[in-house]
Write a structure and sequence with these properties.
Chain lengths: ~375, ~300
């Protein structure tokens, strides 16, 4: 019983002990190590880092272990830890053009400078359960090895951009302050930097569903995958006392540049633009093309107002998308319905009893209609 | 007592300062929802993160904290939040309303009148009283700015047209200091009159929605109504079955599957205090032990 009875504290303690034991599972089996999770459940770890907004593989692995594999719970653990960390400042913008490419594909050009690199992908695998994994010791063949180029790999949108066929994104003012949705409450309407921050930590499933809805006609954006790339980039930071950038390490990122048709016309500011491709952008920690692509589609949809497009679909609605895509917020509020509500329920019970008494006492609807007609 | 590795009451001082600024602004503009940079807390959104942040920001080492949920000190979430502050701040906690300097609450205002030396911190799920009439924040902020509360009056009027009376029983909207319409959090409307001219400072924290608002001491708080349909609180046919209290909010307890019911105080501290003073309800002694023990005997 979880209501106001004596011993609530003890019951909670016992529940938590039981949880710890269930987390460990059958003790005749070896415990899974955090390093194993980091290595062998790497994409789950990536998701926890991305939506937890904290790039730390070992903490994310620990969170997955502690949460028994419940990724949203793990994301929550990471977020709650992240919020306690001191903030030194913002890094220099990372240059994905100088990414150490592990995978890079374009759906718009057959070949392009830097080439198409398939890398580690589930694409083109046959989704047949591999019973051999279970039987044998999970030995795998050595991967083929090539030589990485030191050359920068230009982004496709920049290649086409030179013809003016794709909207230009003006170079940002390096001195402009960087928005931070974790330090400033979101106010609508939002700027694109804030939106991208919200989407980057937004729930993969929610964004996937929204992105899918745009493909099925709810706010269509005519998208093409200009490019998806995954790899490691160096992060640099300028400490105030030094005054120049020092490398802090590398992070793995998936970037998606979606290009979308635009027939040209007046933008919201009154500026007239010729027909051109417009952009949607997705960037996430780790390898998650599903998330990066969904983010890019939703980003473009949320620019509907900017391009003076008709806004009728959920994916085009800033307040709808941005207020509901955070799974830590969503899961908390949905699951809070488990908490006792009996004070309010009592109030509603009382009201319902009154309404029913009044209903019983009132004449039947047919009689009333007759009476009204007669009057 | 304080768990190593975290600041007093969990939040860092910079965050507390930011929250205090929001609180001060809220006090300066009674009933106005102040946006604040709500932090992720180690408990879920919707489980009192706003209230916890407000409490953490105002809590001092000498404070005595009481936490209630549904009027009771021993409901799961009240226990959890009280433990959180015991661990992170090491402050003294109590279940006695009269001994607390800060009371964090979900869904109730204590029956015992509050004093000038106390602060009542409400946990708020949806701070916007107009939200279910207008889902857009851009629009509701405009309505507040213009003090345009026609939507709310129409809603209450429609209740009367349909049912003959206003059919809102909790989170019943109030007007604060003659200006802002405010959500009192999902307390039963029974508690609304306690907010009016209250000697204690009342603070409201909504973590997920990132809003703080306040009712300063001795502020006029009026429940919205019409001249011919004045506001009225819930009444109960019988007194508390344990302490015989009249004019308190009661919980209905299902005793069996044959329609057996008993009604007992929702405010467990109030009930225990009265029983300690010798008040005896009709079922005291015959009610199940778990209920008689109320919520206040902590292990």
């Amino acid at each position: 019983m979880y209501v106001a009875v004596k011993g609530g504290e003890k019951a909670i303690d016992n529940a938590h002990r039981l949880l710890a034991s269930k987390r460990r599972g059958d003790t005749s089996l070896p415990a899974i190590s955090t390093a194993q999770i980091a290595e062998q459940l790497a994409l789950g770890v990536d998701r926890v880092m991305a939506e937890g907004s904290l790039y730390d593989r070992s903490l994310a692995s620990l969170a997955i272990r502690q949460s028994r594999g419940d990724l949203i719970e793990a994301i929550f653990l990471v977020r709650a830890f992240r919020t306690t960390l001191p903030r030194f400042g913002a890094s220099e913008p990372v240059d994905t053009g100088r990414m150490q490419i592990r995978r890079r594909v374009s759906a718009t050009f057959k070949d392009l400078p830097g080439g198409q690199i398939l890398g580690p992908t589930f694409d083109y695998t046959h989704r047949l359960l591999d019973f051999a994994l279970e039987a044998a010791g999970d030995e795998t063949a050595e991967p083929a090895i090539g030589t990485a180029s030191d050359e920068a790999t230009p982004r496709v949108v920049d290649l086409v951009g030179e013809e003016g066929l794709i909207e230009r994104e003006p170079a940002p003012d390096p001195d402009a302050p960087v928005g931070d949705i974790t330090r400033t409450p979101l106010e609508f309407p939002t700027e694109r930097d804030q939106r991208l921050q919200v989407l980057a930590r937004g729930d993969e499933g929610f964004l996937l569903g929204l992105a899918y809805s745009t493909q099925r006609g709810f706010g269509r954006t005519h998208p093409f995958v200009g490019e998806i790339r995954f790899g490691a980039v160096e992060v640099e930071f300028v400490p105030e006392e030094l005054g120049f950038a020092v490398p802090m390490g590398t992070v793995e990122l998936t970037e998606c540049q979606m290009v979308n048709q635009f027939h040209g016309g007046q933008k919201a500011g009154g500026e007239s633009v010729p027909p051109q491709f417009t952009r949607g952008y997705g960037l996430v920690f780790g390898q998650s093309e599903r998330k990066a692509m969904s983010m890019a589609l939703v980003d473009r949809s949320l620019r509907a107002a900017e391009f003076a497009e008709q806004q009728s679909a959920p994916a085009q609605d800033q307040e709808f998308v941005l207020s509901h895509c955070d799974n830590v917020q969503a899961t908390g509020f949905v699951e809070h319905l488990k908490l006792p509500h009996y004070v309010d329920f009592q109030a509603e019970l009382g009201l319902l009893r009154t309404l029913r008494q009044e209903y019983e006492a009132a004449p039947a609807p047919a009689e009333e209609a007759m009476r009204e007609a007669a009057e | 007592m304080s768990e190593t590795g975290y600041n007093f009451a969990y939040l860092d001082e910079g965050t507390k300062r930011m929250i205090r600024r929001a609180i001060l602004k809220g006090i300066a503009i009674p009933g106005y929802q102040v946006p604040f940079a709500s932090r992720e807390m180690p408990m879920p959104y919707g489980w009192g993160t706003g209230g916890v942040q407000v409490t953490a920001a105002i809590l001092g080492a000498d404070d005595v904290l009481k936490v209630i949920d549904q009027g009771s000190d021993d409901t799961t979430n009240a226990v959890s939040i009280r433990k959180f502050f015991e661990r992170t701040a090491g402050v003294e906690t109590t279940t006695a309303t009269t001994q607390a300097t800060i009371i964090q609450t979900r869904h109730r205002i204590p029956e015992t009148p509050l004093t000038e030396d106390q602060v009542l911190v409400f946990q708020v799920p949806i701070p916007e009283p107009l939200r279910f009439l207008e889902p857009r924040e851009t629009e509701t902020r405009r309505l507040h700015a213009l003090a345009d509360y026609g939507l709310m009056h129409v809603k209450l009027y429609e209740d009367i047209a349909r049912h003959g009376h206003i059919a809102t029983t909790y989170a019943y909207p109030v007007e604060v200091d003659g200006r802002y319409v405010m959500d009192p959090s999902p307390t039963p409307k029974f508690d609304n009159p306690k907010m009016d001219d209250c000697p204690a400072l009342q603070l409201f924290g909504a973590g997920r929605e990132k809003r703080i608002y306040a009712v300063p001491p001795y502020t006029k708080v009026t429940s919205l109504d019409f001249e011919d349909h004045p506001f009225a609180v819930q009444t109960f046919k019988q007194p508390c079955a344990l302490c015989d209290a009249h004019d308190v909010y009661l919980d209905e307890i299902v005793l069996d599957d044959r329609g057996g019911r008993m009604f007992v105080c929702s405010d467990t501290d109030h009930c225990e205090t009265r029983r300690g003073e010798g008040h005896r309800g009709a079922m005291l002694g015959t009610a199940p032990e778990a209920i008689t023990a109320g919520g206040n005997s902590r292990v």
